[in-house]
Design a protein that fits this description.
The complex is a heterodimer of chains A (about 110) and B (about 110). Chain A is mostly beta strands. Helix content of chain A is about 0%, strand content about 60%. In chain B, a hairpin with a 3-residue loop joins strand 4 and strand 5 (about 40-50). Classes of the chains: A mainly beta (about 110), B mainly beta (about 110).
């Protein structure tokens, strides 16, 4: 089955800095890679996703890059703000049959004012 | 739409008791997922239903756990008997295509 590794487990940055979270996956059949944000005590919510036919996708201050050859993808947050503080999860899934999302262990991002 | 609804939001019980968690998916969604979240193990998929049929229950820890989806608008996750190591936040999520929409979760504490 799929295995998703996520690094770092915690990340502290100053407001205005950039933050990068990296994930690797094992199943070459995976072709859908979402990122979820979970604020303290809240539910995970999708913030951005990318498919394997795209190398990069941006949405305002967040972007995701994908390297299928190396089997890794990354989340980039620019101009971080305190409200970006949360746990971020990457996930991977193959678009075949009844495959499901495999989540990474999460990265706790703390943005200090 | 009210989103995915879960009940109860918090449950405190004693070891050995039966616990039933409930979920109402978003209307029209055909997939439903039960997850367990702990600090040590992260977000684990327990079971996945498609069109009310269990497709993958390989994540169900042991026979003490069971899940049902009698119709498209309701699912239950039951733990019998409960143990302290079952303490966690249990999320239900539903989807129609790619995005999974999570419920608010049930925080379970087994004493």
């Amino acid at each position: 089955g799929e295995n998703v590794e996520q690094h770092p487990s915690t990340l502290s940055v100053q407001e205005g800095d950039s933050a990068v979270i990296k994930c690797t996956y094992s199943d070459s059949a995976s072709n859908y890679f979402p990122w979820y944000k979970q604020e303290l005590g809240k539910r995970p919510q999708l913030i951005i996703d990318i498919r394997s036919n795209v190398g990069e996708k941006k949405d305002q201050r967040i972007a995701v890059t994908l390297n299928k050859t190396a089997k890794h993808f990354s989340l980039h947050i620019t101009e971080t703000q305190p409200e970006d503080s949360a746990v971020y999860f990457c996930a991977a899934r193959a678009d075949s049959g009844y495959s499901t999302l495999t989540f990474g262990k999460g990265t706790m991002l703390l943005v200090s004012p | 739409d009210a989103g995915v609804i879960q009940s109860p939001r918090h449950e405190v019980t004693e070891m050995g008791q039966e616990v039933t968690l409930r979920c109402k998916p978003i209307s029209g969604h055909n997939s439903l997922f039960w997850y367990r979240q702990t600090m040590m193990r992260g977000l684990e998929l327990l079971i996945y239903f498609n069109n009310n049929v269990p497709i993958d229950d390989s994540g169900m820890p042991e026979d003490r756990f069971s899940a049902k989806m009698p119709n498209a608008s309701f699912s239950t996750l039951k733990i019998q008997p409960s143990e302290p190591r079952d303490s966690a936040v249990y999320f239900c999520a539903s989807s129609l295509s790619n995005e999974q929409f999570f419920g608010p979760g049930t925080r379970l504490t087994v004493l």
